[in-house]
Design a protein that fits this description.
The chain contains 16 helices and 26 strands. It has 518 residues and is α/β, with parallel strands linked by helices. The strands form 6 sheets. An 8-stranded mixed beta sheet has the order 2-1-11-10-12-13-14-15, with helices on both faces.
Length: 518
């Protein structure tokens, strides 16, 4: 059968099918006490894929999931792909209004969740017009409220490969909702081609092989999880999923399973370095430790590289599609950089008029490459604001050096303007993070009648009461590079507000600070 010009039959689910054929007895998936070969995992996936078709799910139908890390969610990611439906993973941190908003926005036809969320759904089911009353599935136990049993559906279905579904590279595979750090979450539509490029690009960049053992401790709702999930399936590596992040358990699992590759957000890396059972010996099997999701402060990078040299990678990227990678071989030469664009990607730094600025000058990071999103789902105006003539406008500020390596300065929206001067929170955070009592820091601006904005530093400490806010503020202000960078207030927090990916929510910090001042 002939294909349309420039369009190829690519289904990301083909990766699992191939592994089940080519290395059926290799350990494919580990979750808690369950250890599945690729043959066993593929049979489970085929059963849930055929069960979905039996429920009337067709190509292009949206399936919303509200699940913590679990084997069922992994099965759904691949089963949904095989039938040509679209996965819409939603955060377990959402409340009823947020769930209603995103399920409605995505046009989801079916919802898969567990009993923890029944009460939330009972409150909003009548307000979800696209989801029929019999299109709710529970993964953990049967419900008296009409929810279907995931495992009963799977058991009754056939384990052969689904047939008759034709997917091309431009068809959507999933919709990832932004964390909402700067406003209402937006549905980022990513195609089978984009996920295929994740598989090939990151397998190469991170030096994965069929013998690799990939471990993931963060939420697999977070787009960063696909950065290792897709290439692990590409090469047929073992993929270990932890139910949740716990630094001690993570270290124990790495040592026991001889894990080789991990991607983590900065807060997780910091927790591991400060864990009581941290040791070089326990983590020596790791060949790749990649930081993603937010800037990792230089002192943490240096500490990590001192203990575990020649393993550190950093990934800067937007779910919308542009990335740079700092390779482990580049880190010693450019430790403050977040890397350079991989093959087939281009980067520009532009001013407010959209004009390229000279090397070394700060501007907005703009890029393009093969992993650009299709659109913000049903939001053409917002799509047009961020995608212009094939270039993605990131909203991040940075500069490049003569070798095309990117140095991030800050989020455009996080920049503080104090007394008419641009102040970049990241510069101050780097100073605060050097204090021996500080574990994490977030710097943000608050309104001020005289200066426009003044600077607040929120911190978490290794031990309570080891330093007062006043002492820490004085210590920082003696070390910042300019008077306009001086901190006016320090907040000591027990914990930071975070997104599902672990990213600190500065918007929430500002709102909390404003509420306390009223």
């Amino acid at each position: 059968m002939s294909q349309r010009p420039g369009v190829h039959p690519i289904n990301i689910g083909m990766l699992l099918t191939r592994n089940a054929q080519c290395r059926p007895d290799h350990l494919g998936i580990v979750f808690e006490e369950k250890r599945l070969t690729f043959r066993e995992f593929n049979q489970n996936v085929n059963r849930i894929a055929n069960a979905l078709r039996g429920l009337g799910i067709d190509k292009g139908d949206k399936i919303a999931t509200v699940l913590p890390n679990c084997l069922e969610l992994l099965e759904l990611y691949w089963g949904i792909a095989k039938v040509g439906a679209v996965a819409v993973p939603l955060s377990t941190l959402l409340m009823s209004p947020g769930l209603k908003s995103l399920i409605t926005d995505s046009d989801a036809k079916l919802v898969v969740t567990n009993s923890q969320f029944i009460d939330m759904f009972e409150a909003i089911k009548q307000e979800l017009p696209h989801v029929a009353s019999d299109m709710y599935i529970l993964t953990d136990k049967p419900s008296s409220k009409g929810y279907q049993d995931y495992h009963a559906l799977k058991k009754a279905a056939d384990d052969t490969e689904p047939e008759g579904v034709e997917i091309d590279e431009n068809d959507p595979y999933n919709i990832i909702y932004s964390s909402g750090t700067t406003g209402l979450p937006k549905g980022i539509v990513l195609s089978h081609y984009v996920r295929t490029f994740y598989a090939t690009l990151f397998a190469s960049s991170f030096r994965m092989s069929p013998e690799s053992v990939v471990i993931h401790a963060g939420s697999i709702v977070f787009n960063g999880s696909f950065v290792t999930l897709m290439p692990a399936m590409q090469v047929g590596a073992t993929y270990i999923l932890l139910a949740k992040f716990d630094a001690q358990k993570f270290i124990e699992t790495v040592q026991r399973e001889k894990a080789t590759h991990v991607i983590m957000v900065p807060s997780q890396l910091i927790a591991i370095l400060n864990s009581q059972n941290f040791s070089v010996e326990a983590l020596e099997s790791l060949e790749m430790i990649c930081s993603v999701g937010a800037p990792l402060h230089l002192d943490v990078k240096e500490q990590l590289n001192q203990h575990l040299p020649n393993r550190f990678y950093e990934l800067y990227g937007l779910t919308e599609g542009f990335i740079t990678i700092l390779d482990k071989t580049h880190y010693p030469l450019k430790p403050k950089s977040v890397g350079n664009p991989p093959p087939f990607y281009k980067i520009r730094i532009v001013n407010d008029a959209g004009e390229d600025v000279p090397i070394g000058e700060i501007g907005e990071v703009v890029g393009r490459g093969p992993t650009l999103m299709t659109e913000y789902y049903r939001r053409p105006e917002l799509t047009a604001q961020i995608l212009k003539e094939g270039w993605l406008y990131s909203g991040d500020l940075g500069y490049v050096d003569a070798d095309d390596f990117l140095y991030l300065v800050d989020r455009k929206k996080d920049m503080i303007i104090s007394g008419g001067v641009n102040v970049y929170p990241k510069d101050i955070e780097e100073v605060v993070a050097q204090h021996p009592a500080v574990i994490e820091v977030a710097v943000f601006g608050i309104p001020d009648q005289k200066w426009g904005e003044t600077i607040v530093a929120a911190v978490s400490l290794r031990q309570p009461d080891v330093v007062t806010p006043e002492e820490l503020m004085q210590w920082v202000n003696e070390r910042v590079g300019a008077k306009f960078q001086r901190v006016r207030q320090v907040l000591i927090l027990d914990e930071f507000p975070r997104s599902i990916s672990g990213k600190i929510l500065k918007r929430v910090l500002r709102e909390q600070f404003a509420a306390e001042k009223k």
